[in-house]
Amino acid sequence: MARRTKTVLEENISEDDLFVLVSEPGLVQDSPSLGHHLLMEKRQVLHYLRLIEHEMPKLVAYRQPFIPPSSKETPIYVKEVHYQGEQHPALAKRSIVVAVDDLPLKDAAAVHKLKLLAGPRWTPNPPKDAGVMEDEAWGNGYIKISSDTHRNAEMNLKWVSDALDRLVVEANDSKDTFSDLPVDMRHVYAKVRKAKKGDHLRNRPLRPVSIADFPKEWLPTIQS
């Protein structure tokens, strides 16, 4: 049996007809799928460019000046964490931060009792992740309460809100003011020592170093 050296098409068609098939252009003139995809992207970009040019100027009529919220109007800062649609156990966690001066405390004894009852949840400075304005006065410090016990975020927020309410009620109870007990600052000192920024020296947490911290003999002599 002889070995086939030509294709079936070459055996059934003449050389002239084969030349015509190769040289003449095809009847279907179309772009490949990648070309259609690029054209679709161009159309989408042009669509949004037209919206920017013709529709965006109409939004000027709805423009309003931004006024930062005051702590008196919204005293409680609520913090939540999300991972751009990804599931994570921390999604249900809720935290609230509130200034002690913004709470309905009746007197200075209630403020002192609140600091004692809050324990490490009270700090003289606002937490860095609280969203508190930098120019806002610290006053009597801040309270931060967090919860991730419940699976539902709303339930965790309800729990921390109720815990804050119970804390205020107990602080305003004048049966025992605990006025003879000092405020526990050990958690503040521990956090400052862990940061290792020099504020832990000479028991000066949260106070920057100044000329008063240097010995007097180190200071230059001022000649009159």
From TrEMBL:
Pfam families: MRP-S28. Residues 66-218 form the Small ribosomal subunit protein mS35 mitochondrial conserved domain. InterPro entries: Ribosomal_mS35_mit, Ribosomal_mS35_mt. One of its GO terms (cellular component) is mitochondrial small ribosomal subunit. GO terms for biological process: mitochondrial translation. One of its GO terms (molecular function) is structural constituent of ribosome. This is Small ribosomal subunit protein mS35 mitochondrial conserved domain-containing protein. It comes from Candolleomyces eurysporus.
